[in-house]
Amino acid sequence: MTRYVANRLLQALLVLLVMSVVVYALIGFMPGDPIDLMLNADPKLTPQDVARLKALYGLDLPLYERYLNWLGAALSGDLGYSRAFAKPVLEVLLPRLANTSLLMGLSFLFSLALAFPIGVVAATRPQGRLDAAVNLFCFAGISVPPFWLALLLIGFFSVDLGWLPPSGSENVGDGSLPDRALHLVLPVLALTLLSVAGFTRYLRAEMLEVLSQDYVRTARAKGVPERSVLLKHALRNALIPVATVIGLDFGALFSGALITETMFAYPGMGKLTYDSIMGNDFNLAMVALLFATFMTLAANLLADLAVGWLDPRISLA
Amino acid sequence: MSAKEERGGRGRRHGPWRLMAERLSADRLALASLVLLLLLAALVLAAPLVAALLGHEVDEVDLVSRLEAPSWSHPLGTDELGRDELLRLLWGGRVSLLVGLVAALASAVIGSGVGLLAGYWGGLLDAFLMRVTDGVIALPLLPLLIVLAAVDPAKLGLPAWIVEAESLNLYRIIAIVALVGWTRTARLVRNTTLSVREREFVLAARAAGAGPLRIMLVHILPNAVSPIIVATTLSIGGIILFESVLSFLGLGIQPPAASWGNMLSGGLELFATSPALALYPGALIFLAVIAFNLIGDGLQAALDPRALGRTRGR
Amino acid sequence: MTEPLFAVDGLSKHFAARGGGSLPALVRVSFAILPGETLALVGESGCGKTTLARTAALLYRPDGGSVRLRGIELTALSQRALKPFRREIQLVFQDPFGSLNPRLTVGSIVAEPLVIHGIGKAAERLARAAALLESLGLDAADLERYPHEFSGGQRQRIAIARALVLEPKLLVADEPLSALDVSIQAQILELLRDLRRRLGLAMLFISHDLAAVDRIADRIAVMYLGRLVELAPRAALFARPSHPYTQALLAALPRLGRGKRKPGTAPKGEVANPLSPPSGCPFHPRCPKAQALCAKIEPLLEAKPEATPGRRVACHFPD
Predict the structure, then answer these.
(1) In terms of DSSP bridges, do strands C64-69 and C22-33 run parallel, antiparallel, or are they unpaired?
(2) Distance between CA B24 and CA B287 in Å, rounded?
(3) How many angstroms separate the CA atoms of C195 and C206, rounded?
(4) How near does any CA of chain A get to the CA of B50, in Å?
(5) Is the ipTM of this complex over 0.90?
(6) Which subunits have 3 or more CB–CB pairs within 8 Å of chain A?
(7) Entry pTM
(8) Quick one: three-class SS letters along B178-244?
(9) Checking DSSP bridges between strand A81-82 and strand C38-42, what pairing results, if any?
């Protein structure tokens, strides 16, 4: 078991390494050398100034040397400075991470809390009207463009009804809990709606599959109360593939969070990632992207471990 | 009783496709989606006709008639530059559908190739390809796509004729999306290859002297076609969404070229006054994507009635 | 004495088993087939018959021993070098439903070997396929149809047509009748006999059905746990089986052939686990005649001096 985990961690490290190389190269290919940007902003810079600045920042070195420098610094804990914020990257990242974790965590919980009862109930009455409605709802959920959904929510709740604030994580000057909670409502609602459809679908499909198995019929024939049949026998087995899928969908959850944060101007990791890439904030973009990759890999690993724990047939040795 | 008499009255051909078509037509949602998509496709293809009918060009700027309400001349009103909204939507539809279909096709080809090679040769090649596939699946897609889309092609050292091509943006989006969309098909095809490889008709072909290429293309691939079609159809919706997100973020199709995604971002600023401009493109994206998903799901159920509308993973 | 068409000598093949260890599927198998001769291979499930069939059809590479076609050694050849030899050895499988590609028309299936070897042009190939189908009792119009439109017996005919299209000298038939209805089995068996006579085909006929074997074989080889335990002309084998296992097989049949039979005792127990075969003679735990020697030394397949000519037995105490 430990061997399996060690193996996976090694693979994860490899993926991270490759990602870092690829992303570093790609960012290097993005338009707008930071020095060029400074040049645009300040036409009085002479070519000597430019050369001096480039040497100062190490931008005159070839790409692979710059990468190795970065890698060396990163491994020893120095993740660099964010140009846009003029602060160390970690200082910028961590509070945003907290915000996004809050957003994703709440959405995740609500999605699961909704998906389970809906999925299970729909599975018990297949081909019924409820099931058809749920099915359609699920398809709608995975088909809706996230920014359009956000727009609809803002339009309805903020503009028309005026109940909820349309953006940000708190009002300026007021960081109190109710205020922050109010600001969270719409983003969480949006992200939840996006995720619940997917989860419900998987759960319903799995429950349908499991409920048609012979051992469920046997349990029913034996007179086991329906509730027990559902919860103890069916659900536990349906959970297994769902756990996998949840882990795999983490990447989608993060992407959804990115869009949601951008739409609601919510200061989280997703928005940070987008802003840093578009704003050529190299150091920050690198770390943000690698962090997102790391979280996705961790989610996958956790999901596989959970599946291994839940399914006695699988031995992870 | 001779062999001829054995056959009895088996006149008509009962191909595997007919059976699938029968089951598909029983699924009302899928059928409705198919009709919807055909309608959309027809409209979008006939866009130049519609333009001629209305008497406008799609990029005809008319600052006098900004943000007008629907009228006979402009059935869906005009946008912030006085351009006809309906025409812009139709042209945007061309882009979205084109990207969706072409990228899905490209993904299918790449994925099938990878899956076939991995499944047939096995061993190290299989292990390597599957590690790569798993690696790509594990990546957070959107951030990566953003980076890819933000790359400046001039810096990549590509020849000038590519960099300056007008449709560069279009090709780029298709390439990017295809680059990350092949993994599901690859896994699927690999699994199918593994099982088909051991079947006796493949052994018979090998005994007759068939080489690996022939076996992969003539024997294995045709038997994997159905799941490939299903997976590809189901991927189109996601691709259209990706394209719209990228265009929305300003990284995909650039204005003034119309794309549902960038029309939506353009309509954002005017949301308070003219919400329709943002609502129309979003609604169309929604309809197209859900239609493709419902068709794909219907196809899957038609091919394998036990699947019960289950699709998972990426 | 004519030169054998096909000969294997000391053929061995093992497979890696799950969880470690190796499964010896073939252990030092040796036999030869003369042109036009039919050698039947009998034995229970799992004794290695299919592995032998596939190795003979050059689908598996043996781990040891030699495979010779017309005296030419094949085991060391590359896949490319093997290709022309494949025309002379063709294979018919047990399962008529699995051995035809459901996505191809019958015409494509039967003509494919010709395509692979670049023989003739499209029209010629189809004509040849049509002629073959007709000679096997099917219709030229069937070229356009798909396998699922045919019955089991008809599909087996199609499979046979495919095997014959290259005009091979040796046909390896791996349980060609087992998956068919009893009434059809007789038809296909007659078909094979007819083909053999008309085309001078040599055959390696694998079956667990001794009655069918009685109809078609010239010589019979008996297999147990990957080894040949007896090899004899058909009449002699049925009249006087030498090896205790052969005796047990024959005794298990309600009624058989001609000649006297020793009322043999049924073997004890079940077939041993091929992953860990018994020491010495693999049959000794079940053999009614087993003695101390049998557990220690494995007997070789050889002609005993006092036996009838052409017979070889792997037993320390054959009858």
Answers:
(1) unpaired
(2) 20
(3) 17
(4) 27
(5) no
(6) B
(7) 0.77
(8) HHHHCHHHHHHHHHHHHHHHCCHHHHHHHHCCCCHHHHHHHHHHHHHHHHHHHHHHHHHHHHHHHHH
(9) unpaired
